[in-house]
Write a structure and sequence with these properties.
Layout: H1 11-21, E1 28-34, E2 40-45, E3 59-61, H2 64-74, H3 78-88, H4 90-109, H5 131-141, H6 147-155
Antiparallel strand pairs: 1-2, 2-3
Helix pairs in contact: 3-4, 5-6
The chain binds zinc ion.
Zinc ion (ZN) binds near residues 35, 37, 39 and 165.
């Protein structure tokens, strides 16, 4: 995978993010993934917010239709099922471990924050706790980096997919 360059944030992006989130976005350092229409899907966030709070979730899913589609899957208890599979499937567990390391490496590029050193997000590397985080990572990194995020994206593709605008 080639890494995408940090995508510059415009004033328009900030306005769209505020609308998507229903609050002013915090710690935005880039747009990690965009809809084909140009609106942000995933925001890249600083590892420490302006008020000093450590912020482990480097990739935050902002697109309301994507968030809704993922929330529907969370409500079915999919996290428990996926966590159980990690314990049984060594190959999946190894790929998920690599996703965890990739996540930490990306965040480290934005600055080192001691309080969250070695801690990624979404439950990585041993558990699946937040599908929004894993989908945010999969969209930011592209296919083949976060296996659980990729799988959730394929599960929701009838409701939401990144190559079809439903903004
Ligand atoms: Zn769109």
């Amino acid at each position: 995978m080639t890494r995408k360059p940090l995508d510059a944030v415009t004033d328009h992006d900030i306005a769209v993010l505020a609308e998507q989130l229903g609050r002013p976005p915090r710690g935005v350092v880039g747009i990690a993934a965009r809809c084909i229409c140009g609106r942000p899907l995933v925001v890249r966030t600083a590892p420490r917010l302006d008020d000093g709070t450590p912020f482990p979730t480097t990739y935050y899913l902002t697109s309301p239709p994507a968030v809704a589609a993922v929330s529907t899957r969370e409500a079915t208890g999919l996290m428990k099922e996926l966590t159980a599979r990690l314990a049984d499937d060594d190959e999946l567990a190894a790929a998920y471990q690599r996703a965890h390391e990739a996540y930490l490496a990306d965040r480290e590029e934005l600055g080192h924050v001691e309080e969250i050193a070695g801690i990624s997000a979404g439950g990585m590397p041993n558990r699946v706790k937040c599908l929004h985080v894993l989908v945010g990572h999969a969209l930011a990194a592209g296919p083949g980096v976060n296996p659980i995020g990729d799988e959730v994206l394929s599960l929701i593709r009838d409701e939401w997919r990144p190559d079809r605008c439903t903004c």
